[in-house]
């Protein structure tokens, strides 16, 4: 039985061939470190790393490629930024839809004297924007927020939140795990102070590579929580005060960066708009195909039913290619098991590391079956998933 991969919200698959080829080329023909080897191959590799920083700044509207910091993943990025920025007595706001990559650091910091409050959302996972200003306190330092939900795909109004943050002189930290590589992001236009990203989802790189981009003003505000050798100013035991070395100790994941470089080039060639159009076309096809089942009371589709909002001839994405459902006559875990073993459709089932988001959506503690579409999915994949859900849910 052929498998249909619909778990791109966890990690994109398959990757473009160029990504695998780039990693293989590095592993078999280079294998060097940077900042440590004084020979031609190492210098060439350093050029690739620099180019990757430049591409990330270009894609996300950053200010300077030296302010791109590589980490293992978006979770590490969020930990570095939040734990380095927030001090006892500080207050921070987050949305009610956050992943544990945000919530667990905040809960950990809460035990050390940091306060946080959740901006409420509605049953579709939409942020209640009007509530934000009234929740800001004199000691509010930052708002930290996902750009798009990893459960229902709903897109947060980052630009509007950024305007509020600037008005009140507080920082905006964005978790772009579900949006980077598929939705347009411009740090300058959206007033984002720290953008945390992962490489293995819609940026199409391998696992184990991520990072964050910060503004110049954020550099002295974040205390490094990791330290060690950087290959620079080796005569001193003090942490470098310049970027990106300030936040990049130890050996970098160079195979990951090389693969990410190839993924970014693939996206640039394909075009971000074309990628978004394809994924949201498939998403809308899937939702429309499931609506009759919801009308019959057989399933519940979580989140918004429309993928786009059109105003003055301009289409704005309302969600990403992530769709969660509950089967109302069949246990969700059993349904997901059948989707895989009887129909070859690979999904994710459960609470997706975001328990409070499920409380907001009204799907806690059962959770959902999550379908997430990617670059390489097809109409046939979607139709097969609709048929399988129909047969399972109608039992």
List the helices and strands and how they pair.
Elements lengths: L3 E2 L11 H13 L10 H21 L7 E4 L2 H12 L5 E5 L4 H11 L4 E5 L12 H4 L4 E7 L11 H11 L2 E5 L11 H4 L3 E5 L11 E5 L39 H17 L1 H24 L3 E3 L6 E4 L2 E4 L4 E6 L4 H12 L1 E2 L1 E3 L4 H7 L6 E5 L6 H15 L2
Parallel strand pairs: 1-13, 3-4, 3-5, 5-6, 6-7
Antiparallel strand pairs: 2-8, 7-8, 9-12, 10-11, 12-15, 14-15
Helix pairs in contact: 1-8, 2-8, 3-4, 9-12, 10-12
State the fourth-level CATH superfamily of the largest domain.
Answer: Type I PLP-dependent aspartate aminotransferase-like (Major domain)
Low-confidence stretches: none
Task: Characterize the biggest β-sheet.
Answer: 7 strands, mixed
Gyration radius, in Å: 21 Å
Number of separate strands: 15
Order of H and E elements: EHHEHEHEHEHEHEEHHEEEEHEEHEH
> How would you write the strand order of the largest sheet?
2-8-7-6-5-3-4
Query: And the CATH topology of the largest domain?
Result: Aspartate Aminotransferase, domain 2
Termini separation: 23 Å
**Structural class based on helices, strands and sheet pairing:** alpha/beta
CATH architecture of the largest domain: 3-Layer(aba) Sandwich
| Share in β-strands | 15-25%
The proportion of residues forming helix, as a percent range, comes to 25-40%
Average of the residue pLDDT scores:
95
Annotation field: number of helices: 12
Q: How many discrete structural domains?
A: 2
């Amino acid at each position: 039985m052929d498998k249909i991969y619909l778990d791109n919200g966890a990690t994109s698959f398959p990757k473009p061939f160029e990504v695998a080829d780039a990693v293989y080329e590095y592993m078999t023909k280079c294998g060097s470190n940077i900042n440590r080897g004084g020979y031609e191959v190492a210098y060439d590799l350093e050029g690739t790393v620099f180019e990757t920083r430049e591409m990330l700044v270009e894609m996300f509207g950053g200010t300077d490629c030296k302010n791109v910091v590589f980490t293992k993943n978006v979770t590490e990025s969020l930990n570095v930024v939040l734990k380095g920025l927030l001090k006892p007595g500080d207050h921070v706001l987050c949305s009610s839809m956050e992943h544990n990559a945000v919530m667990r650091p905040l809960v950990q910091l809460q035990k050390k004297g940091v306060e946080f409050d959740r901006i409420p959302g509605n049953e579709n996972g939409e942020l209640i924007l009007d509530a934000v200003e009234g929740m800001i306190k004199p000691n509010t330092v930052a708002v930290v927020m996902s750009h798009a939900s990893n459960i229902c795909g709903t897109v947060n109004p980052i630009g509007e939140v950024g305007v509020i943050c600037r008005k009140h002189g507080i920082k905006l930290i964005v978790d772009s795990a579900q949006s980077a590589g598929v939705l347009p992001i411009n740090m300058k236009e959206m007033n984002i102070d720290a953008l945390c990203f992962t490489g293995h989802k819609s940026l199409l790189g391998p696992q184990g590579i991520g990072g964050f981009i910060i503004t110049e003003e954020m550099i002295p505000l974040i205390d490094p929580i990791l330290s060690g050798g950087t290959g620079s100013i080796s005569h001193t035991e003090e942490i470098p005060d310049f970027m990106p070395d300030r936040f990049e100790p130890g050996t970098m994941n160079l195979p990951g960066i090389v693969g990410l470089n190839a993924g970014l080039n693939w996206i640039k060639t394909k075009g971000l708009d074309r990628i978004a159009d394809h994924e949201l076309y498939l998403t809308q096809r899937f939702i429309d195909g499931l609506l009759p089942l919801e009308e019959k009371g057989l399933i519940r589709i979580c989140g918004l039913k429309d993928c786009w909002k059109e105003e003055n001839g301009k289409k704005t994405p309302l969600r990403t290619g992530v769709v969660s459902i509950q089967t109302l006559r069949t246990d969700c875990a059993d349904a997901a098991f059948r989707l895989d073993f009887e129909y070859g459709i690979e999904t994710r089932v459960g609470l997706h590391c975001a328990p409070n988001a499920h409380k907001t959506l009204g799907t806690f503690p059962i959770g959902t079956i999550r379908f997430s579409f990617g670059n390489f999915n097809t109409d046939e994949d979607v139709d097969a998933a609709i048929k399988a859900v129909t047969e399972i849910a109608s039992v």
